[in-house]
């Protein structure tokens, strides 16, 4: 009986130790290859990884910072791009202040348009929802990222939309400001829609410097004002 208890204790300890291991970027690549090949389910795998929270962020950063492959190997390039995209999905699912900070960086400079677009969409939608639901204090820098992206006509197959439209809708959601180039009514927008003066529509950086940088988050109304 004692021997059985010892064996059970050892097995439990080993299992806990394995569950506490933080996957490296190489480990993540292997997991993503299993997803691509159909040997693992995407959301189930991401959920398991994301349970580790911020501790796995360095591994995702390493993977996302890998230079684009210069190769004629289409399969290798596809794997890399999907690995990047799965990593961005995981960052959104983790949903911490630090993971959204990485998404901000991706939204500004990642070489893959789908990853960059996913990050902008995340800042425009899920980050907004998080700040509304759990009183997170948002980083005003996202307004700068969004306003500089509203003229981007890059089409995202994963979102079936352009980066510019996503950014414009997000900016309207966060601030109520309408730059006048897309007058569609976006579901879920809170507050009053404000027409932006013509001179500021032309110069996105000028809007940021004269208006956006001065806006203050109003948690009650759910907008920067």
Please supply descriptive tags for the structure shown above.
single chain, 225 residues, mainly alpha, two-stranded antiparallel sheet, two-stranded parallel sheet, 12 helices, 6 strands, 60% helix, disordered N terminus
% residues in beta strands: 5-15%
Query: How many helices does DSSP assign?
Result: 12
Give the mean pLDDT. Answer: 84
Shape: globular
Give the number of DSSP strands: 6
Numbering strands along the chain, what is their spatial order in the largest sheet?
A: 1-2
In whole angstroms, the N-to-C terminal distance is: 68 Å
Radius of gyration, CA atoms, in whole angstroms = 21 Å
Q: Low-confidence stretches at least 5 residues in length (pLDDT < 50)? A: 1-18, 182-191
Helix content: 55-70%
How many strands, what sense, and barrel or not for the largest sheet? Answer: 2 strands, antiparallel
Helices and strands, in order, run as: HHHHHHHHHEEHEEHHEE
Structural class: mainly alpha
């Amino acid at each position: 009986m004692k021997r059985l208890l010892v064996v059970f204790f050892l097995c439990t300890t080993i299992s806990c130790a394995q569950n506490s291991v933080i996957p490296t970027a190489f480990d993540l690549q292997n997991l993503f290859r299993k997803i691509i090949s159909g040997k693992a389910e995407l959301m189930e795998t991401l959920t398991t990884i994301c349970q580790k929270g911020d501790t796995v962020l360095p591994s995702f950063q390493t993977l996302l910072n890998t230079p684009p492959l210069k190769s004629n190997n289409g399969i290798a390039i596809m794997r890399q791009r999907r690995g990047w995209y799965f990593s961005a999905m995981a960052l959104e699912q983790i949903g911490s202040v630090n993971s959204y900070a990485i998404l901000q960086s991706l939204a500004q400079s990642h070489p893959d348009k789908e990853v960059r677009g996913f990050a902008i969409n995340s800042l425009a939608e899920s980050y907004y929802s998080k700040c509304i639901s759990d009183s997170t204090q948002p980083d005003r820098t996202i307004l700068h990222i969004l306003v500089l992206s509203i003229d981007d006509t890059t089409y995202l197959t994963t979102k079936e939309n352009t980066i510019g439209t996503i950014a414009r809708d997000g900016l309207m959601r966060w601030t109520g400001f309408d730059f006048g180039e897309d007058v569609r009514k976006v579901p879920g927008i809170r507050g009053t829609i404000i027409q932006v003066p013509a001179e500021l529509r032309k110069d996105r950086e000028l809007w940021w410097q004269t208006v956006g940088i001065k806006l203050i988050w109003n948690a009650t109304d759910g907008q920067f004002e």
